[in-house]
Write a structure and sequence with these properties.
Keywords: DNA-binding, Nucleus, Transcription, Transcription regulation. This protein is an alpha+beta fold. The chain has a domain of 114 residues: At1g16640 B3 domain (Beta Barrel). Helix content is 50%, strand content 13%.
C-alpha cells in the first residue's frame, strides 16, 4: 500500500512540474497575450443597420385602352361570360346550406314502400295513351347532387335522342324548365329548382306522365302525408278493436247475468216444490 501511494504521489508531482514548465514557456513566448489580442472585441459605437422601409404602392390608373381611330367611337367588346340565371346571394346560399344540413328527412322503408304503392295506384288511373312511370325520391335527388336519373328503357322508347329542354308541369299547372341529357338518360339543370320549389324530400314518390314529346305532367305523393294516413288508419283500427272488445265484454256480462237469474229462478222453483210436498205430507 505504501509503495502504491508513493507511485501515485510521484506521478502527480511529475505532472505538476510539467504543467509549470509549459506555463513558463508560454509566458516566455508571450502566447497568452497574443491569444487575448486575437479574440474579436465588441465595438460599442457601431449602430445596427436601419431596416428598409416598405415601398408605397402606386394607385392603379384605370385609363381606357388605346384603340384605333376607326373603332374609337364604338363601344368596347366584352368577352366575359354572362350566366343566363342571376347568381345566388349570400343569404340564399346560406339558407340553402342550412336546409341541406338541418332539414334533411330520412324516410323509413315502410313509408317509402307505402308511397310507392300509392303512386302506382295513381298511375293506374291515368290515361294509358300517355306513357308514365313512378320515380321514388332519394337524398341525392332532393338535397345532394340534384341529378335525377330516369328509366333507361322509357327514355330510349319515348324521349328525344339528343339533349333537349323538358317542361315539368306540376299539379297546379305551373311549368318548370329542366335540361334532359339523352346520353345519361336523366334530368340535370333545372331539376334542382323544381325539387326546392316543391319541397321534395327523401321518400316522396313522383309519377311522371309524358303528355307531349318534351312535357311531363308530375304528380307528387308526399311521404309525410303517407305517414299521416297510415298512422290514422292504424289509430282507426285500434279504436275498432277496442270497440269490439267492449261489445264482447258487455255480451259476456249479459250472458252471465242471464244465467245467474235463471239459476235463481230454478232454485226458487225447487224450494217451492219442496215446500208444497211437505205440506201435502203433513195433511196426510
Amino acid at each position: 500500500m505504501v509503495g502504491a501511494k508513493k507511485k501515485v504521489m510521484s506521478y502527480e508531482e511529475v505532472r505538476r512540474q510539467r504543467v509549470e514548465e509549459n506555463k513558463k514557456r508560454m509566458e516566455d513566448l508571450n502566447l497568452l497575450k497574443l491569444a487575448k489580442h486575437l479574440r474579436p472585441q465588441p465595438n460599442p459605437s457601431s449602430n445596427p443597420s436601419p431596416q428598409a422601409k416598405p415601398r408605397a404602392r402606386r394607385p392603379a390608373v384605370l385609363a381606357p385602352a388605346r384603340r384605333s381611330s376607326r373603332i374609337a367611337d364604338q363601344p368596347s367588346v366584352s368577352y366575359r361570360e354572362v350566366s343566363a340565371t342571376p347568381p345566388l346571394s349570400l343569404s340564399q346560399t346560406f339558407s340553402y346550406q342550412r336546409r341541406d344540413l338541418l332539414n334533411r328527412v330520412y324516410a323509413s322503408s315502410e313509408v317509402r314502400q307505402y308511397a310507392i304503392h300509392r303512386a302506382e295506384e295513381l298511375q293506374s288511373t291515368l290515361d294509358p295513351e300517355h306513357p308514365s312511370f313512378v320515380k321514388p325520391m332519394l337524398q341525392s335527388h332532393v338535397t345532394g347532387g340534384f341529378w335525377l336519373g330516369l328509366p333507361s328503357l322509357f327514355c330510349k322508347t319515348y324521349l328525344p335522342k339528343e339533349d333537349e329542354m323538358m317542361t315539368l308541369i306540376d299539379e297546379g299547372e305551373e311549368p318548370s324548365q329542366t335540361k334532359y341529357l339523352a346520353g345519361k338518360t336523366g334530368l340535370s339543370g333545372g331539376w334542382r329548382g323544381f325539387a326546392i320549389d316543391h319541397e321534395l324530400v327523401d321518400g316522396d314518390a313522383l309519377v311522371f306522365q309524358l303528355v307531349s314529346p318534351t312535357e311531363f305532367k308530375v304528380h307528387i305523393i308526399r311521404a309525410n302525408e303517407v305517414g299521416g294516413d297510415s298512422e290514422k288508419e292504424n289509430q282507426d283500427e285500434e279504436e275498432e278493436e277496442e270497440d269490439e272488445a267492449l261489445e264482447k265484454g258487455k255480451r259476456a256480462k249479459a250472458k252471465a247475468a242471464e244465467k245467474e237469474n235463471k239459476n235463481e229462478e230454478d232454485d226458487d222453483l225447487d224450494s217451492t216444490r219442496r215446500r208444497s210436498k211437505r205440506i201435502r205430507t203433513g195433511r196426510k
